[in-house]
Amino acid sequence: MGQVGANKQHGLYEEAKKYMPGGVSAGGRYHGIFGQPLYLDRASGSRLYDVDGNEYIDYYACAGAALFGYEHPRLRAAIDKAVEKGFFMNFDTEYHIELAKLFRKIFPSAEKMRLCNTGTEATLGAIRLARSYTGKDIVIKFEGHFHGMHEMIWYNHNTTAKIDQYGEVESVPDSLGFPDVSKEVVKNVVFNDIDALEHAVKKYKDNLAAIILEPISFNCGCYATRKEYLEQVRELCDREGIVLIFDEVITGLRMSPGSAQLYYGVTPDLTTAAKAIGGGFPISVILGKEEIMNCLNPLGKTVMSGTYSGALMPVLATIECLNMAMEPGFYNHIEEVGNALYGGMNKLFEKHGVPGHVRGIGARFAIYFGVENPEDDFDFRKVAEKMDRNLYKRFIAECLPNGLFFHDTAGPKSPAHYGITSQHTVDDVAITLEKMDKIFSKLGNTKVSL
Known about the structure:
The chain is an alpha/beta fold and 450 residues long. The protein has 13 helices and 17 strands.
């Protein structure tokens, strides 16, 4: 196996820096541990192949978008169908209606839908919709949760800020360039603490439009909601007339066809979904109650549209993805492969005396280096205090030359989320664990050059 920075990889990076800031077309593609992106030649099944001919078992899965792996024959057929029909970039078809019916069948909250292109666009639209429906401005989010890169919500992701005695957290933007006025309508509270949320709702309810959350915060690794807490949030929103938004951009299709809302048995007013639903194609959706969704144009005065929204190729790909997810055995396979990987890695932590554990739900997981108590997964601040980023960096640095790809997306306060695809196999896991056994043996006593 090769090493990032060597051979053709390095040359491409040096050339790319002449034309793109940081040498990347998207900031997230820069691999912080290796100091450059990984340049691929192709990808197939569960494997990546770089420009120097090296092969990797992929555990990044394109930040969760590639749930169905790479070069899936049924997605290739969907692409061919779109090409044969002429792409139809800016028109609706009978397939859009077929897709809407599938969403309604899969997601409990999906009375009506509106298509868009990215998760960021979906959360932006859902927040706008909640504000127009309620006539109020403020949105409550939770510390550590991520809902896209726009000024209306991108605060306090992967950072810990000042917290008051009631559990409200100072709103801190995650990027420069945000106007100060934006944070006046974004309020943060600690997660899984109903008293903190009740206090914030009481404080802001005269102008509170929505509460938005990740039912399972994979953006904080694999940080789950307690079921009773989610039920309490639902009851609170019903009582106070607040729109409850589930951001299922990552959880969508991840552990069952009904996603997190069916997994927990709690139905939101609005849902945003993206990533896995399109199998790697740019598509997202807002799903929700009819009375709220009907506020959208052309029926209502809340405008949400786009030139590329609902383009034929991603629509046909999404239909195929949803159909595959509903087929018998699909999630049995995901669970078999996932459980083998997560359980096997936890045994390696124990075998080699490395502090930490793996927590996975469905097809996504996180590696909590330095966090030995799984209950701390429910407390963002405890994880932030205990996470050992040095161990994490040493692990990632050893994986690539051993033919395992883990992208460096971890923030300073919580681990990255990684994942498997429907094309990963138990044999892939066996190969992975054999390689990881050697890697874990080094973590306690060997410094890895970064």
